[in-house]
TrEMBL record, chain A:
Pfam families: PLDc_N. Residues 19-60 form the Cardiolipin synthase N-terminal domain. InterPro entries: CLS_N. This is PLDc_N domain-containing protein.
Automatic annotation (TrEMBL), chain B:
GO terms for cellular component: plasma membrane. GO terms for molecular function: ABC-type transporter activity. It comes from the Bacteria. Keywords: Membrane, Transmembrane, Transmembrane helix. This is ABC transporter permease subunit. Pfam families: ABC2_membrane_2. The keyword Repeat does not apply. The chain crosses the membrane at residues 21-42, 62-88, 123-141, 153-178, 185-205, 225-249.
Length: 63, 256
């Protein structure tokens, strides 16, 4: 193990950020969510992978 | 046939609007590339977490690239399956409760066309997510561990995808009949029951679709081990699911 390979780590971080951004955009457009919106904002920003998955699977109301 | 295409188009447009076509593949890519990364940095992660007994890390041996790839595909069997099943649970249940199905059936649209279009849309998302995820995992594994056999990977991912498709098809069937969350629960339960039955009696039940995960791992690590029984039974199961879902919609057995 030499140094940390940032070339391989930053795409992972970028994808996490992308996921959170898509979630936030979707949240902004949504009329209704299960549970308060501000809570989903926190979950999307700090919840990493599982937070975003939770929002997309159970947070949204299908219309 | 033209109806199916039109309905499929509508389904795909909807999954694009709901960002499903983007977020599911992105999650699969993250899951895929995290496996080789965490395996590679495991000693560092353990060290950073503290409380590592001295000498424990000396025995750490980096697993081979094929093993890491098999593990990466295994990720799709747990979290990946959960995501796919939760994504399909409302596909028929939602349209039943909103009354879209009745409107569609009032027109000369066959129930089988509605169900097939939905199924094909789910298949598209699954193929995209699994393909991109496996490719991402393979790239990372090549960078960190060593060369990956891409032909073995294609076969292994195909077998794994067929197993995931079984779970998705089961959930679609339950979705034609129950409410969304109940459909997801039963879909996951059925898949888990099949896996459990297969792991308890592997020699007796090696023809079951659940055997696909084992064959897939063997395909990845050994390069062979192809068995047609599970593939055949998986295809039969999927056809039964789509056909019965169409039948349920046709009879409009609406519980609500």
């Amino acid at each position: 193990m030499d140094e940390i390979k940032w070339g391989l780590i930053w795409p992972l971080l970028a994808l996490q950020v992308l996921l959170a951004v898509i979630g936030l955009v979707s949240l902004g457009k949504a009329e209704q969510t299960r549970g308060p919106k501000w809570l989903w904002v926190i979950i999307l920003i700090f919840g990493n992978l599982l937070g975003s998955v939770a929002y997309f699977t159970v947070g949204r109301k299908d219309n | 046939m033209r109806n199916i295409w039109t309905l499929y188009h509508k389904e795909m447009l909807e999954s694009l609007r709901s960002y499903k076509l983007i977020w599911v593949p992105v999650v699969f890519i993250i899951l895929g590339i995290m496996q080789p990364l965490t395996t590679y940095y495991m000693p560092e992660i353990l060290k950073a977490s503290g409380n590592v007994p001295p000498g424990m890390l000396e025995g750490y041996e980096m697993p081979g690239s094929a093993v890491v790839m098999a593990q990466a595909l295994g990720q799709y069997g747990t979290i990946g399956m959960l995501i796919l099943v939760l994504g399909v649970m409302n596909s028929l249940a939602g349209e039943r409760s909103s009354g879209t199905i009745e409107m569609l059936l009032a027109k000369p649209v066959a129930p089988a066309a509605i169900v097939s279009a939905k199924w094909a849309a789910q298949l598209t998302v699954l193929v995209m997510a699994l393909g991109l995820g496996a490719a991402g995992a393979a790239y990372y594994t090549e960078q960190l561990m060593g060369p990956v056999s891409w032909s073995n990977l294609a076969a292994a991912a195909g077998l794994y995808g067929l197993w995931l498709l079984c779970a998705v098809s089961l959930t679609l069937l339950f979705s034609a009949w129950l409410r969304g969350p109940a459909a997801a629960f039963l879909g996951l339960l059925a898949a888990a029951a099949m896996s459990l039955a297969h792991s308890l009696l592997p020699s007796l039940l090696d023809w079951m679709p659940a055997a696909l995960t084992a064959i897939s791992a063997e395909m990845m690590t050994e390069g062979d081990g192809m068995a047609w029984g599970p593939i055949f039974s998986a295809v039969v199961l999927i056809v039964i699911c789509v056909a019965s879902a169409s039948l349920f919609i046709h009879r409009k057995q609406l519980p609500e």
